[in-house]
Amino acid sequence: MSQASRTRPSGSSTALSEAYDTALLDLDGVVYAGGLAIRHAVEALGTARDGGMHLAYVTNNALRTPAAVAQHLTELGVPAEPTDVITSAQAVARLVADQLPAGARVLVIGGEGLQVALRERGLEPVESADDDPVAVVQGYGGPDLAWGRFAEASYAINRGLPWFASNTDLTIPGARGIAPGNGAAVEVVRIATGAEPQVAGKPLPPMHRETVLRTGAERPLVVGDRLDTDIEGAFNGGVDSLLVLTGVTDAAQLVAAAPEHRPTYIDADLRGLLTGQPEVTPAGENFGCGGWTASARDGRLVVDGEGDALDGLRALCAAAWSHAGDGVCELDAEKAVARLGL
Ligand SMILES: [Mg+2]
């Protein structure tokens, strides 16, 4: 890693919606969960957009088309056009098209979003390993994807065809809980082939490239709930990020984040776009933020104070990240996180 590790969350004297021209928003766990809008998301996004911020939605889910995602967002009260939505299906389609001749036949294991994205790049989706494909592309196919599709992919890959995957998220959150994601499906095919796919989705560069190409963002802010996709993707792309606590990441995971998983800013939900961010101030071994002070001492993390618990979390992250440097903080944070009530 060439750049110096982030050792504390950043402050911002202006609202993030003014400091950045484009928000690159993750969907699941940020805008909606299980198909329903997350608390405060609709109002906060409306206010940010009215203030001039461009909103784009960046999802690793390759199942649905951008048009279907945009319609869903619009129904939730977040008006969006298909061009505002960037999917890992689009990113993998560009990756495939860059390596194959125009009109090439591609065996597709996945849903409509992947089919549409491949056609958009001039590729011809086919169903069988016997349809003379020259590559295999695999994306999330939803609960109805038949097991036989993994066999089809395996036959083609074992004949020596190159293999591409939209993303490798192992799980996917749904209304009834956590289900196996495309990464789990990729593992199934890997077991039968021993091969290694080229992957497009977050946190990898093809997805970030697709997003920048499609949005024209000059000063983007990545907004996400997941450290190993959203925040690491922002880190790899060299752009700033906001972690919201409405999805899969909790306070303890943030405190223990590896350097590539440390967000620029931390907030409870999307209302964080509309405000500035408080500074974390180092003073000797202590880090202060709002009414809270945190430090690493006697082999554990300590935080004390009062006021907004988020400020306490920002101070606690600074104490942990500074202590860990280029590594992962292994000090006991349980009591400190409990003290914050997070
Ligand atoms: Mg998410």
Account of the 3D structure:
- The chain is α/β, with parallel strands linked by helices.
- The two termini are 31 Å apart.
- The chain is globular, with a radius of gyration of 21 Å.
- A six-stranded parallel β-sheet has the order 5-4-1-13-14-15, sandwiched between helices.
- The model has no long low-confidence stretch (mean pLDDT 95).
- α4 packs across α5, α4 crosses α8 and α6 crosses α7.
- The protein is built from twelve helices and 19 strands.
- 34% of the residues lie in helices and 22% in strands.
- The protein binds magnesium ion.
- The site of magnesium ion has 8 residues, from loops.
Tags for this model:
342 residues, alpha/beta, 5-stranded parallel sheet, 12 helices, binds magnesium ion
* Low-confidence region ranges: none
Strand content: 15-25%
Mean pLDDT: 95
Termini gap: 31 Å
Radius of gyration (Å): 21 Å
- Order of strands, main sheet, comes to 5-4-1-13-14-15
The helix tally amounts to 12
Count the E strands. 19
Ligands present:
magnesium ion
Find the structural class using helix and strand composition: alpha/beta
* Largest sheet geometry: 6 strands, parallel
Q: Tell the overall outline.
A: globular
**What is the helix content?**
25-40%
In short:
With 342 residues, the chain is of the alpha/beta class. The protein has 12 helices and 19 strands.
Per-chain topology:
Blueprint: H1 16-19, E1 22-25, E2 32-33, E3 36-37, H2 41-50, E4 54-59, H3 66-76, E5 85-87, H4 88-97, E6 105-109, H5 112-120, E7 124-126, E8 135-138, H6 148-158, E9 163-165, E10 171-174, E11 177-180, H7 182-193, E12 198-199, H8 205-215, E13 220-224, H9 227-237, E14 240-244, H10 251-255, E15 265-267, E16 281-283, E17 286-289, E18 292-297, E19 300-305, H11 309-324, H12 334-340
Helix pairs in contact: 4-5, 4-8, 6-7, 8-9
The structure holds magnesium ion.
Magnesium ion is lined by residues 26, 28-30, 224-226, 247.
